[in-house]
Amino acid sequence: MDGAKKRPAINRIYIAGEKEYKRTEDYRRTGIPVLVPVVEVLKKRGEALGVPFEIKLVRSVQIEG
């Protein structure tokens, strides 16, 4: 597909599953992103049930919205 004809604004053509494969590899290397509010809810529910919840923050990303 690398040699396939592309539209002017398109830099690359992906084959089926290629984007998902790359994302999976990225997650294996860097971890799965989880939003801070989700982590807070999991911690609170864990505390309420007596289940420890520890998570290592690898990096923080600002989401604009």
Sequence-ordered SSE layout with sheet pairings:
Blueprint: H1 18-30, H2 36-49
Question: What distinguishing features does this structure have?
Answer:
single chain, 65 residues, mainly alpha, 2 helices, 42% helix, elongated
Short description:
The chain has 65 residues and is mainly alpha-helical.
Structure report:
Helices cover 42% and strands 0% of the residues. The chain has helices at residues 18-30, 36-49. The mean pLDDT is 84. It starts with 17 loop residues before the first helix and ends in a 16-residue tail after the last helix. It has 2 helices and no strands. The radius of gyration is 19 Å and the shape is elongated. It is mainly alpha-helical.
**Protein structure class:** mainly alpha
Number of strands: 0
Proportion of residues in extended strands: under 5%
Pick out the low-confidence regions: none
Backbone shape: elongated
- Gap from first CA to last CA: 35 Å
Count of individual helical segments: 2
